[in-house]
Amino acid sequence: MSTQKKTVENEFSMEEKIESLYRLQQIDSKIDEIEKIKGELPLEVQDLEDEVAGLQTRIDNINADVEELSALTRQRRRETDESKMLIEKYEAQQQNVRNNREFEAINKEIEYQKLNIELYAKKLKEYAAELKVKKRVLEEAEAMFAERNIDLESKRNELNSIEAETAEEMAALRAEVAEAQSKIDERLLNAYQRIRKNMRNGLAVVTVKRDACGGCFNRIPPQRQVDIRQNKKIIICEYCGRILVNEPSVE
Q1: Which residue in 179, 170, 162 sits closest to 8, CA to CA?
Q2: In angstroms, rounded to a whole number, what is the distance separating the alpha carbons of residues 45 and 88?
C-alpha cells in the first residue's frame, strides 16, 4: 500500500469519504450533461476522419496506378518507335544482300519487329482502356473526398464551438473532480468508477428518496436506511448495485 493511499484512508473519516463520493457523482453528472450537448458529434467527426483518410489512401493508390500505366504507355511507345527504326534499317540492308539466305534472315527480323509493333499496339489499347477507367474512378473518389472534407470541417467547427463554449466550465468541474477524488481511497474510487461504467445513466451513487433507492426505486428496509444515515460504512443497493447515501448529503 502506497503512502498516499494510507494518507487518504487515515486522514478522512468514512462520513467524509461518502460525502466526497456523492459530491464526485454530482460533478460527474454535470460533466455528463455537458457531454450530452455534443451528442454524436465526436463519433461523427471520428467516422468522417476515418472515411477521409480512407479516401485519401484510395486516391493515392489510384494515382500510383495511373502513373504506372502512364509509364508503361511511354515505354511501349518508345519500343514501338525503336521497332519501326529497326524495320527501316533492315529494309535498307535488304537492298544490299548478297544472297537469299541473308535476305530471309533480315526478313525474319523485319517480321519479328512487326509482331512486336502489333503486340505494343495491343498493350497500348489495354493501357488506354485501364487509364480511362482509373481516371473516372479517381474523379469520383476526389469528388467524394471533397464532399466528405466539407462535412468534416462543418462537424469539427460545430464540435469546436461547443468545446470552446464549455471549456471554462469543464476545466472548473475537472478541478472539482480531482479535489473530490483526493478524499476517496483508491479501492472505493475504483468501485465507484466500475459501478458508474455499468449504469446507462452514469449514476453510481444515489440518495434514498421516499424510502426507495434513487436509482432503481426499489424499497429500502428501515434498518438499512438507519445504517445509511449513520454514514459509517458503504451501503450498496441489493437490487441495482448502486451506492446509497442519505438525502441530507446533497449540497
Answers
A1: 179
A2: 64
Distance CA 22, CA 40 (A): 28
Distance between CA atoms of residues 169 and 160, nearest Å: 15
pLDDT at 1: 42
Measured CA to CA in angstroms, residue 37 lies from 45, 47, 169, 198 at distances of 15, 19, 13, 21
CA distance 87 to 194: 83
- Which pairs count as long-range contacts for 77-86, CB under 8 Å and 24+ apart, including other chains? 77/120, 77/124, 79/116, 79/120, 80/116, 80/117, 80/120, 80/121, 80/124, 83/113, 83/114, 83/116, 83/117, 83/120, 84/113, 84/117, 86/113
Strand order through the sheet with 205-209: 212-213, 205-209, 243-245, 235-236
**107-131 residue pLDDT tens:** 999 999 999 999 999 999 999 999 9
Kind and range of the H or E run holding 19: helix 14-38
Q: Left if phi > 0, otherwise alpha if psi is -120 to 50, otherwise beta: which for 84? A: alpha
Q: Alpha-carbon distance 160 to 152, whole Å?
A: 12
Q: Tell me: pLDDT of 98 over 90.
A: no
Asked if residues 211 and 225 have their Cβ atoms less than 8 Å apart, the reply is: yes
Please give the pLDDT value at position 101: 92
- Are the C-beta atoms of 44 and 197 separated by less than 8 Å? no
In this structure, are residues 51 and 58 in contact, taking their beta carbons and an 8 Å threshold? no
Report whether 116 contacts 85 (CB < 8 A).
no
